[in-house]
Amino acid sequence: MTGKELKEQLIYSPKNLGEILSEEEIAKAHEFCEGYKIFLDEGKTEREVVEFTEKLLIENGFEKFDRTKKYVAGDKVYYNNRGKALIISVIGTDDIENGVHIMASHIDAPRIDLKPRPLYEQTELALFKTHYYGGIKKYQWTAIPLSLHGVIIKKDGTSVKVNIGEAEGDPVFCITDLLPHLAKDQVQRTLSEGIKGEELNILVGSMPFKDDEVSEKVKLNIMRILNEKYGIVEGDFINAELEMVPAFKAKDIGFDRNLLGAYGQDDRVCAFTSLMATIETQNPTKTVVTILSDKEEIGSDGNTGLNSAYLKYFIADLAKPYGVDGRTVLANSTCLSADVSTAVDPTFQDVTEKNNSTYANYGVGLVKYTGVRGKGGTSDASAEFVAKVTQMLDAENVIWQMGELGKVDQGGGGTVAMYIAALDVDVLDIGVPVLSMHSPFEVTSKLDVYMAYRAFKVYANSK
Ligand code: MN
Ligand code: MN
């Protein structure tokens, strides 16, 4: 045997999808991402993703989950948790006590939330005070167009939906930054303090109300416009959830158009791919349970995050008509925690370790564990479950890669994996590698997006 043959047999060598996929498969992957771009543009907050997805589910024969009903194989249901999270299920032929197949992604993304009393005026300009949501590098959010999304509950109990800055011709908003000419002191700050939390103020207007008697005329004029448009008064901001997100649309990146840039790909890339896989799954063996969760970016706490009991209760409700305990179902279940991984950045390679990182174009990324300081705060997947997943993917020629978050002690993070593992379920993190994660413009490879979709489809249809 030659060294070359021996090397092929013994040495592990991942390959670039661009080199191994056929032109036809590459075209399919690129085409698949056209739908993904629409999903990204239509759903810039968890509420918008839920609304968009619910319509799609109904179009595809899914019905609202009724906990008193005993579902049979082939039934398709969904549970809407407070308009911010979804559990979608396709009932399988196998007995529910033998477990279900869970795919869990999240649809919240880092952003800039308005404070409960946001509006103020200074130097005759009107601004919003904000409190950022999730892990952001604050300086990245200045001097870019932002759009306003959310809901306001009025005194009469009616709810007003807000979406300004997305439609062609809409105004947008922005956070101003200091001109370099006068930034002598600012540039001495550390990068994390370059823009401070209380400096993330949003410019929302500049026209004074024409009246000599009153003060804060610009603020008054903004309230006049908002009152005309939405029928709200300043106090109504208190009963609201209003969020600023990047106003730009999903775009192809590069001369070859193989990368995709957009806000919120962490983790709507896994939400979209697992959702498509679920919608296309007919009569699976195992019952498929797909979760689009909220609050992952702030630690999964709160009643729409996966650290709440809503998944556990859904499983218990699903199993009860069969006389089966939820805990029995969970103990026999497996889960793909569908979340993004870090793609090695050519400019910042030294934060990753090359043999144990995920790369753009190398397939869907498996991550055995996340966490910080010696695997703290994670679910470290078992060898048995990793073997089960990789063998399942290999059998269907789904190209995957294995990596960890970054170099040991370089930083860290987590996913929903640990919360689902806490329910006595076998869990493995799997998702698409992302460049510029948590920035206003995150980057993925279309080939990896397509591989994630294929991986979820294989899992949903597996025994
Ligand atoms: Mn994520
Ligand atoms: Mn994240």
Descriptive account of the structure:
The chain is of the alpha/beta class and 463 residues long. It has two domains: 3-109 and 263-460, Zn peptidases (Aminopeptidase, 3-Layer(aba) Sandwich); 111-246, Aminopeptidase i, Domain 2. It contains eleven helices and 23 strands. A nine-stranded mixed β-sheet has the order 1-2-3-14-4-15-21-17-19, sandwiched between helices. Helix 3 (23-42) crosses helix 11 (446-460) and helix 6 (265-279) crosses helix 11. Bound molecules: manganese (II) ion (2 copies). One manganese (II) ion binds at residues 106, 266-267, 296, 339-340.
Short description:
This protein has 463 residues and is of the alpha/beta class. It has 11 helices and 23 strands.
Strand order of the largest sheet: 1-2-3-14-4-15-21-17-19
CATH class type of the largest domain: Alpha Beta
Look at the helices and sheets and give the structural class: alpha/beta
Could you tell me the mean pLDDT?
Answer: 97
Strand content: 15-25%
CATH topology of the largest domain: the name is Aminopeptidase
- At the fourth level of CATH, the homologous superfamily of the largest domain is Zn peptidases
Please give the largest β-sheet: 9 strands, mixed
How many separate helices? 11
> How many individual domains?
2
Query: Which of globular, elongated, flat, extended, rod-shaped describes the shape?
Result: globular
